[in-house]
Amino acid sequence: MGYEFILFMAVVGGALSFAAWFTVKWRARDQLPHPAAWGIADSRLNVAGTGVLMGGVIYTAYTFLAAPGLAYAQGGFAFFTLVYTVLLIPVSFVVLPRLYQEYAARSALTSADYVRHRYGSHVLGLVVALTGIVATMPYLALQIVGLADILSVLGVDFRDGSGFLVMAVLLTLCGIVTFHDGLRSISVLAMAKTFLLAAVTISLVGLVAVRAGAPGQVFSEAGDRLADRSLSLAVSPSMRPAYMTLAFGSALAQLMYPQIYLSAFAARSKDTLRSAILLLPAWTALLGLFVSFGVAALAVGVHVPATNTDLVIPRLIDALAPDWLQALLLGGLAVALLVPMSAICVGISLLVVRNVYCEYFNPSATPKHEVRVARFSSIVVIAGAFSFALALAPQDAINLHLLGGIWILQLFPAVALSLFTTWFHPYALLAGWAIGIGSGTGMSVWHGFHTIVDLGFGAHRIPVYVAVGAFAFNLTAAVLLTPVCNRWWPRRGTDAEQAGPPRRRGSRFAIRVH
């Protein structure tokens, strides 16, 4: 580790210091701690702030590493990420503002808060909370794996002594910045991410143009290299169902992650959120350039292990940039990764505190106590994810993230569809959830943790995204079982139909802890 590492740490430390300083200037000194302030920044962000935060959280740095790696390994199939982010915009425009309105009416901060109020079911709320926690943890661990890939180019292996210390320092600094102010600090750090990612993109465009020539020449050379492996920059007709279902399922699943809706609820109003969603195409364009950088890595002859193609962008930077610029660009990528990592910690912590700890162990907890527990929970969560990433091989972390994507999509009927109808019976939703979780996990494991499986009858089979197949089973079961459940277990009415404001929380199973 030489001066390049010092430059790398200067970029990361400077961004974190800026976030800490600006948040202190922004904070109201006489404000009492409250989960809404820590978890959704008191819903005070304007259009630009909300757009920057949502983009910084949705478009993770791991996306900017994995998508180019997929383009390098499989060619044109990687461009499904652009289709998925394009589909995400209209879906977000329909779902998130409606969810914002419902959350505000119920003083909810998590999806489990909302579902419990909507259906009057503690069990369904707990299932939503636990699924969100379990499905999101691999997502967090995968961000740490991405940070390890960036550090590896600087000669730092986070599995040895000095590398372990470096990774621990980075995660500790990130935890310190977000510990006190939560999403407010993350929204400031997202501004730094936006600036740094723009700088990284402009620099890479220039470096690739100097080394490989015009875009047409780059894609032609990459196409020839892919042809040698019987691949193409176009999607074959047989894989188009897989391509579209992967894009569609990813767009639906993305909205169920806790960090996504928390970033949306930081907006000042529903109209502010709608306007901010219209800024997301700029982030999609940025992602498109990064996928193209994966194609450029093929053209310039970058070599990465077949088992870890996420190294494509760091290795491309290593091949094209001088040492000093390489350190600065990798530092920018690291900051871009810390933003979603911190937001994920906040999202998981709120689910743990509000829907497990306060719901079943301490219903009388004050808002100040909730914030205190949430802060320490965020530290435990990031330490657990670090241990998780350290103990598992990168491929194992990717496999668990694949399962997490399957699991999180199974919340869509209970959370998103309930915004438009309360027709579903909560027991039917629970049964559909169980069928979706079981079938999706089984199909994925049976096929060796592959993203795509062949579904159909007899000789008539098509390749589809495994999570979409499980979601279809989930929704079908919920629809068919709702009339049956209504007959045998009539509902007493949902929280939305009851007079007066919903109860703050509390369960007949609660145990007070002193």
Q: What's this entry about, in short?
A:
The chain has 514 residues and is an all-alpha fold. The protein has helices at 3-26, 35-40, 47-58, 61-74, 80-106, 111-119, 122-153, 161-181, 183-212, 215-227, 240-254, 258-265, 270-277, 280-300, 312-320, 323-360, 367-391, 394-409, 412-415, 426-446, 466-488; strands at residues 452-457, 460-465.
Report on the architecture of this protein.
- The structure is a single chain.
- The chain is mainly alpha-helical.
- Helix content is 73%, strand content 2%.
- The chain contains 21 helices and two strands.
- The protein has helices spanning 3-26, 35-40, 47-58, 61-74, 80-106, 111-119, 122-153, 161-181, 183-212, 215-227, 240-254, 258-265, 270-277, 280-300, 312-320, 323-360, 367-391, 394-409, 412-415, 426-446, 466-488, and strands at residues 452-457, 460-465.
- Strands 1-2 form a two-stranded antiparallel ribbon.
- β1 (452-457) and β2 (460-465) form a beta hairpin.
- α8 runs antiparallel to α17 and α10 (215-227) packs across α14 (280-300).
- The radius of gyration is 23 Å and the shape is globular.
- The relative contact order is 0.17.
- The model is unreliable at 496-502 (pLDDT under 50).
| Proportion of helical residues | over 70%
Structure summary, number of beta strands: 2
Q: Report the total helices.
A: 21
The largest sheet has its strands arranged as 1-2
Termini, distance in Å? 49 Å
Query: What is the averaged pLDDT score?
Result: 85
List the helices and strands and how they pair.
Blueprint (H helix, E strand, L loop, with lengths): L2 H24 L8 H6 L6 H12 L2 H14 L5 H27 L4 H9 L2 H32 L7 H21 L1 H30 L2 H13 L12 H15 L3 H8 L4 H8 L2 H21 L11 H9 L2 H38 L6 H25 L2 H16 L2 H4 L10 H21 L5 E6 L2 E6 H23 L26
Antiparallel strand pairs: 1-2
Helix pairs in contact: 1-8, 1-9, 1-16, 3-9, 3-12, 3-13, 4-14, 5-11, 5-13, 5-14, 6-7, 7-16, 7-17, 7-18, 8-9, 8-17, 9-14, 9-16, 10-14, 11-18, 12-16, 14-15, 15-16, 16-17, 18-20, 18-21, 20-21
